[in-house]
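SAMPLE LOG
Freezer: B-3
Tube label: C17
Construct: single chain, 40 aa
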Amino acid sequence: MNKKLGASGLEVSAVGLGCMENTHASGTAMSVNDGVNIIR
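STRUCTURE (predicted):
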């Protein structure tokens, strides 16, 4: 299932990816490269 964002018509998955753990929630933040690799 996808949802459209705003007027641009960009479609994204209705299932979200929580990224708080990638930044600081569990202690030290991971590197930018590691975070980008997870999202891709």
